[in-house]
Amino acid sequence: MPELSQRRRLLVLAICCMSLLIVSLDNTVLNVALPSMQRELHATTAGLQWTIDAYTLVLASLLMLAGSTADRIGRKRVFMAGLVVFGIGSLLCSLAPNLDSLIAFRMVQAVGGSMLNPVAMSIITNTFTDARERARAIGVWGAVVGISMAAGPLVGGLLVDSVGWRSIFWLNLPVGLAALLLTLRYVPESRADRARRPDPVGQVLVIALFGSLTYAIIEVPNSGAASVLPYAAVALAALVGLLWYEPRRDEPLIDLRFFRSAPFSGATVIAISAFAALGGFLFLSTLYLQNVRGLSALHAGLWMLPMAVPTFLCAPLSGRLVGSRGPRLSLVIAGVAMTTSAVLFAAFDAETSDGALMLGYVLFGVGFGFVNAPITNTAVSGMPRAQAGVAAAVASTSRQLGQTLGVAVVGAVLASGVGASSYKAAFVSASVPGWWILVGCGAAVLVLGTLTSGRWARRTAERTADKLASDEVRRPTGVSA
Fold first, then answer.
1. Which range among 1-5, 73-77, 116-120 has the greatest average pLDDT?
2. Cystine design at 85: which of 20, 112, 350, 472 (Cβ 3.0–4.6 Å)?
3. Both 242 and 256 in a single domain?
């Protein structure tokens, strides 16, 4: 792709951020609408989990395929296709007559969403070639997540209270259409120098792993361990199959050599931990504010601002820190803040005090604001540009997998704890194990952020990048196992 002017690069960044905005806004707005959906569609806790996880699960399963496909046939082309499918899925969600239809249409949305964020990140990586400029661009990218978290609860609450929960999906249509037209006009086409062949076996194994694992976790409180054991066995078999099959392909869906880099491996686990914490945090907070405190959707959205605003403010600061000082400081701040926030809820019942509740929300917002930029920057830095789409897709997959598991695990723990008791009376005590899980997620961010950002870790990243680059040069074009 030819070098673009500074103005054109910023325009490309803005267009890519529009796609992130509609995907991120969709998730935050949906959380505020969960209690309204529960009442109108007569959904159980598991049903609410599926409205979130049906989307994140499909997204996580297809992100790597979308990234490698974009590298092969053209990033602009795949990006535009994603905008169209995401828009169609959003329209269908707004028309869903029942819970099962809504879950199915959320999966359509996810097919489109899988073509957006990792491909947009790949476009950004190939547009901003200077390391510091790229880090600042990724900081802006992270700030968009903050914008969605700040605007989502308020906009969602206003729409749910005034029009109804179906209107939250209408937000995606004008923004998606504008992004589509601007992409057509201003985003240059780019692709990898050498095409990578599809890996259908690897793709099926990924879908089997993520799908069966999530189903087993969500359904175990209702169906019992014996009923979900076959799904757990499928997940284990799929994982073993991936570890055996993928290294034997010249062009695998998941290039396991990436994980020889300690920063890349650390970023992957940190992404899973941080976004599991986010998924569980939003799920517990939304249900508590509306179903236990009895707040309206709009008032619940206002209560979420102490979390959303720090995320918005800290994300660009984190991007600048990563560009100037590396990822360690941002990850340490993120880990400390997220862990402390979860401890307030797990050990001190922060929900029961307005001051403690607000402090917990502020700390979590600070932590999440600092964590995104180092994850993204570490995932793509040092990797050959020809594999930028795959590397970015692995990072995005880790985020979505984390959010899927966070909602699944925390929701399952909550459902088990509430049981047949009074929902309001049992909620706070039933949510305590879930908050301790989030404490563990925050601690993982802190520990791994410290261990995988030092000199030793950087040396493993350099060796991995050199190995990947030399293998790409030696490999004949078009050869696949």
1. 73-77
2. 112
3. no
Residue carrying structure tokens 């169209």 = 84
Establish how many alpha carbons lie within 13 A of residue 45's alpha carbon, considering only the half-sphere containing its beta carbon: 29
Q: Could you tell me if residue 195 is inside a domain? A: no
User: Is there a contact between 274 and 402 (Cβ–Cβ < 8 Å)?
Assistant: yes
Structural domain of 209: 200-248
Query: What pLDDT, on a 0 to 100 scale, did the predictor assign at position 179?
Result: 92
Considering the domain architecture, whether residues 235 and 345 belong to the same structural domain is answered as no
Q: Are 297 and 290 in contact (CB under 8 A)?
A: yes
Residues whose CB falls within 8 Å of the CB of residue 383, separated by 6 or more in sequence, listed in order: 258, 264, 391, 465, 468
Neighbours of 264 (CB within 10 A): 26
- Who's near 157: CB < 8 A, 6+ residues apart? 32, 296, 297, 298, 299, 300, 301, 302
| Secondary structure letter of residue 406 according to DSSP | H
| Amino acid at the residue 220 | V
Q: Is 119 helix (H, G, I), strand (E, B) or coil?
A: helix
Question: Cα–Cα distance between 469 and 404 in angstroms, integer?
Answer: 33
Please report the pLDDT score of residue 388 as a whole number: 58
Separation of alpha carbons 397 and 209, rounded Å: 13
Distance of CA 355 to the CA centre of its chain: 29
